[in-house]
Amino acid sequence: MEQKLPERATTGIEMLDSALNGGIPVPSLVLLLGDVGTGKSVICQQFIYAQAKLGFKSVYFCIDHQPEDVRENMHSLGWDVESYEKKGVLRFINMFSSEDYTFEGMKEVVEREIRACERFVFDSISSVAFVHGERRAYELLQRMKKTARANSAVGLINAVRGMHSRSFEVAIQQLCCNVISLRMKRDGRYLKIVKTMKTGHTTEEFGIEIERGIGVNLI
Fold it and tell me: pLDDT exceeding 70 applies to what percent of the chain?
């Protein structure tokens, strides 16, 4: 009997989709673990915009920046965010102020929103670990993974390398289905796929460029 291949979700980056043998398997979590300034948030924004354009119900959890800042950055890249918000396929959830959410309140909102969507971004889990502790951040990721799987959703999780303990970094890489590493080097920014499930991947390291109207472009 021929084995059915998993459905794929585009990242919005053609070369990255190719490196993932067609895109992100559905359902799954993708961990973007990288240095500050390597383009992690742009990849998150590019992914959610690409999915909204395809008509998937998409949610962006704003932890590191307020929704207004995320929208402005997306506008600067030439992306028409408001039209998809008006259509109801793209939503920004403001979790920027930790004063507005207890951990339990955050967990409840995240689970509810993931159950109601098909694609999501959590930007970033590192800030949750900083404010609420690594054990709770790991617990939140576990809930995200379970809920995403139950609802055939795909999520991108942003994590800042060097902001937490080495054991936490290893634990969240083990937990997530797919891991993409981003590094800042002397001659530029680089991306490499570290781990995948339900798909093969190339081991090539790609350079990163960020261009208006395109977003992240791999070279």
Answer: 96
Q: How many domains does the chain have?
A: 1
The domain containing residue 145 runs over which residues? Answer: 8-218
DSSP for 129-173?
A: HHHH-HHHHHHHHHHHHHHHHHTT-EEEEEEETTSS-HHHHHHHH
| Measured distance CA(35)–CA(183) in Å, rounded | 6
Alpha carbons 180 and 191: distance in angstroms, whole number:
7
Q: Element (H or E) spanning 128, and its range?
A: helix 125-132
Report field, pTM of the whole predicted structure over 0.85: yes
- The residue type of 186 is R
Per-residue pLDDT tens digits for 155-165: 999 999 999 99
Nearest alpha-carbon partner for 24 in 49, 47, 55: 47
Q: Exposed/middle/buried for 158, CB within 10 Å: 0-12, 13-18, 19+?
A: buried
Strands 24-25, 28-34: pairing kind? unpaired
User: Does residue 2 fall inside a structural domain?
Assistant: no
Q: Give domain status of residue 3, yes or no.
A: no
What CATH number does residue 111 fall under? 3.40.50.300
Residue 63 burial (10 A CB sphere; 0-12, 13-18, 19+): buried
